[in-house]
Amino acid sequence: MRENLVNNFKQRFIPGFLLIFFLFFFYTLDLNQYIFLFFFSIIFYELIKNELNTYLISFFLLLFFLIILINYSFIYNLFFDFKFFILFIYLFIIFISVLIKSNFFKIIFLNIFIFSSLVFSSFLYVDNKISFFTIICLASLNDIIAYFSGTYIKGPKIAPYVSPNKTWSGTLISYFFSFLLLFYFNFSLIVIILMPICYFLGDIYFSFFKRKLKIKDYGNMLKGHGGFIDRFDSIFFSLNFYLIYSLFS
């Protein structure tokens, strides 16, 4: 029992620690947008390796990120000029990707969501680095707490078909801890209440795609995980939620 606990802890903790380490590394060297090119490359590789990408999408996304890398300031300003329209399209992508039945189009929407999330996250990184790092650290901690409390307390499942291992006990305990930590870091009441929900929804969203696409994991680059994409599931939703909140608050 103790050995399993130690192994499980390593499998959950080490990837989260490495993620934060790489973020800090790029931050200290002031390589702002290159941090997202790094994570884009890893995620892009996983999608290709697991055949969750197509050549057409690959070409489009590579070209898209090349344009962003070269004209980052222009794209950044363009986003804030047309934020209402762009965010409407983004939320529409999330909504329609869940309803659509074709696996081919699900893969397309999944790719668009992942890489648009990387772009939006980079905007928050440039705009508010402290909040960016805090949210990611809390997302990793939330994931660890949810996993261990759900594994060892057990109890009824929330959505067995979508996420077989996710329990009410793990979700509620992780929500409580995230709530307290967000309160400690002086986030607004809206963020304190909704951010832990975003952590949960991000996890469910990506689990839903795995069930629909009939795959076990998004990749095998992280032992004990579903790949790097599984490390980013709750992070994407939470960072983008905070970006949207920042734009309209």
What are its keywords?
249 residues, mainly alpha, two-stranded antiparallel ribbon, 10 helices, 2 strands, 80% helix, 3% strand, globular
Main sheet properties: 2 strands, antiparallel
What's the mean pLDDT score?
80
Low-pLDDT runs of 5+ residues are: none
Number of helices: 10
SSE topology sketch:
Blueprint: H1 2-28, H2 34-49, H3 55-70, H4 72-81, H5 83-99, H6 103-127, H7 129-153, E1 157-159, E2 163-167, H8 168-184, H9 189-213, H10 228-248
Antiparallel strand pairs: 1-2
Helix pairs in contact: 1-7, 2-6, 3-4, 5-6, 6-7, 6-10, 7-8, 7-10, 8-9, 9-10
Description:
The protein is mostly helical and 249 residues long. The chain has one domain. The chain is built from 10 helices and 2 strands. The protein has helices spanning 2-28, 34-49, 55-70, 72-81, 83-99, 103-127, 129-153, 168-184, 189-213, 228-248, and strands at residues 157-159, 163-167. The chain has a two-stranded antiparallel ribbon with strand order 1-2. Strand 1 (157-159) and strand 2 form a beta hairpin. The N and C termini lie far apart (48 Å). The model has no long low-confidence stretch (mean pLDDT 80).
